[in-house]
């Protein structure tokens, strides 16, 4: 995705971010090797597209697992116990 498309997608989910907020975060994620930036000219303008790296994909997977565990603990205590049990096997 390119930066302004990310802002539009976040807005669709109820988050209001300005380019001045989003782009520094994207630059830090790129510096940490979670994202790779590709610059392309589209309709005479340079768009910066961001692609998840292998390291970023691993971090995303880890975050999803932790979020699933948290949601399970908040919404259904039995689900959280099953998740914990499954990890200890």
Task: Describe the overall structure.
- With 89 residues, the protein is α+β, with helices and mostly antiparallel strands.
- The protein has helices at 3-12, 19-31, 54-75, 77-88; strands at residues 35-42, 45-52.
- The protein has 2 domains: 1-52, Arc Repressor Mutant, subunit A (Orthogonal Bundle), CATH 1.10.10; 55-89.
- The chain is built from 4 helices and 2 strands; from the N terminus they run H-H-E-E-H-H.
- It has a two-stranded antiparallel sheet.
- Strand 1 and strand 2 (45-52) form a beta hairpin.
- Helix 3 (54-75) packs across helix 4 (77-88).
- The chain starts with a helix and ends with a helix.
- The model has no long low-confidence stretch (mean pLDDT 89).
CATH architecture of the largest domain: Orthogonal Bundle
N to C succession of SSEs: HHEEHH
Structural class: alpha+beta
Q: Which superfamily, in CATH terms, is the homologous superfamily of the largest domain? A: Winged helix-like DNA-binding domain superfamily/Winged helix DNA-binding domain
Enumerate the spans where pLDDT stays under 50 for 5 or more consecutive residues: none
What tags apply to this protein structure?
2 domains; Arc Repressor Mutant, subunit A; 18% strand; alpha+beta; 64% helix; 89 residues; 2 strands; two-stranded antiparallel sheet
């Amino acid at each position: 995705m390119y930066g302004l498309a990310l802002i539009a997608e976040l807005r669709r989910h109820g988050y209001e971010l300005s380019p001045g907020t989003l782009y520094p975060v994207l630059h830090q994620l790129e510096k940490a090797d979670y994202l790779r930036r590709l610059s392309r000219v589209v309709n005479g303008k340079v768009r910066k597209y961001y692609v998840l790296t292998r390291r970023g994909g691993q971090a995303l997977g880890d975050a999803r697992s932790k979020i699933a565990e948290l949601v399970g603990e908040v919404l259904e205590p039995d689900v959280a116990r099953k998740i914990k049990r499954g990890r200890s096997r």
